[in-house]
Amino acid sequence: MDPNYSAQDVARCDLCKTAIAQNYCDFCHVNLCKPCIGEHISDEYDKHKIVPILQRKSTLIFPKCETHQNKNCKYQCQDCDIFVCSDCAISKQHKGHEFLKLEELFTKSKERIGKDKEELDGISPTYEEIAIELENQIANLDGEYEKLTTEMSKQREELHREIDNAINQMEEDIGEIKVKHHSILKEHLNEIKQVQSLMQKTLVSLHEIEESNEVSSTIHYRSKVEEFRKLQPKINVSMPKFIPKQVAREEVSNLIGKLIPLSTTLEERVFAAKKPNTSVRKLLDEPEVLNAIKTGHEKIFSVTCLNEEQIWTSGLIADIKCFNIQGVLQKTIQTKSRMNPCDIAVDIDGALLYSDWKARTVYKVKDDQTEEIIRLKGWKPGNLCVTSSGELLVIMFSEDQVKVVRYSGSTVKQTIQFDNGQPLYSGNTAFKYITEIRNLDICVADWGAGAVVVVNQAGKLRFRYTGHPSPTKNEPFNPSGITTDSQSHILTSDFGNHCIHILNADGLFLRYIDNCDLKNPLGLCVDSNDSLFVCECFRGSVKKIKYLK
Fold first, then answer.
1. Where are the domains of the chain?
2. Which fold has domain 283-548?
3. Is the pTM of this model over 0.70?
4. CA dist 84 to 91, 94, 103, 224, 343, Å?
């Protein structure tokens, strides 16, 4: 990046193309320097309307009267609800009617439009917050449904486990029943065999008596047939049975649990306007330098506040240096590529971020550990801005294209590049610093375009600031560094004119900081107390400036 890059001049006279334009023709809509005014109005002197350039478009363009072609309508007939000229107003057609001046109606309508615009500017961030909330819900949807199916899988495993336990218990019970069954039958069999054995002995004895001729034993014989005729009772042991339970689908569902279906309800949203900043701080008539820190950088490009006591600085070398506000070096970090960083920033956790154009990477340094958080292909990272929500805005370059990309962590959330198909930013690698103001507008100081380009949170162009005419500022407006404060001021450094422009949030010029012996100011930052830190590029120093009361 070349700090001596000369941008195109955008505040020149439309006739001579060289002199600075101090005036504007509200009839022809052209910029004019004072010497060219005479030439411009020489054809029809009375038709032109020359005003100071800051009052451009202040001359009202009234509608032509349909009845009197050479007259402009400057009144509205309340009775007929139409625009009329002065001749119409005194005609019979409008006799006795009430008239209102269009100029007064225009002024009131402008006031109403201004109030509506202010209110809508206040409402717009709320819609953006709603959209971001919905995007986050959509992004988290897969994870939430995965949790739901995981819970159901756990229930399935639990039920399977309980069923297995119940079946195992039944199998154990069957084993015990089988042993008991076997024991009963075995005992009965033994009883039968005992009777059988006794019967066999009796039959042998009867056979012996029958063959014997002994009188005594034969006479004393007693019959046992009656005992054997009385059979042992039969033991009937029934087999155990398993009767499976018929389970209806509803019972299974009840056993598993209940899935509450998707439901949609509408919850009324009430817009609550954010409280305005009550701690209004006015600009000092004479800003003062509180301190000047010699950094040792041959050329210094960027400065960012770590806290109220420390700042980080970077320049044309690989060293990124941390100083306290007394100018004492606290720490030095070297980039991984050993090349100078494009820019530095501090995230909401106090970690240092730096963009390395050589490695096409954005790094994060915390507790002396460096990690890669963004790696690009086809693009090179430039300047950085950590937003109020903790997201990261990165300016990127690719050949002749430039864009701003919003990251949440390492995830791309938004790309800002075009306005109605036209590039928002000049397509070169000249300095393009970036900041976010309190209303969430995104401001880019585009050196190559000679303009501060401001878009809203959605990426829609709000305005371009192309400098403020001044007889003491002879160089083209080259905005380089840019920052913002608690009052929503936009502060941008004007490299060639050795000053800083202070604008309000709508791009209205408020004043210069040009009395602090500034020399080629570049990178800017503001701490939590609204103290301004300014890099003086070729001096290699950082000045701390008080500019608010």
1. 141-256, 283-548
2. Neuraminidase (2.120.10)
3. no
4. 10, 9, 13, 148, 60
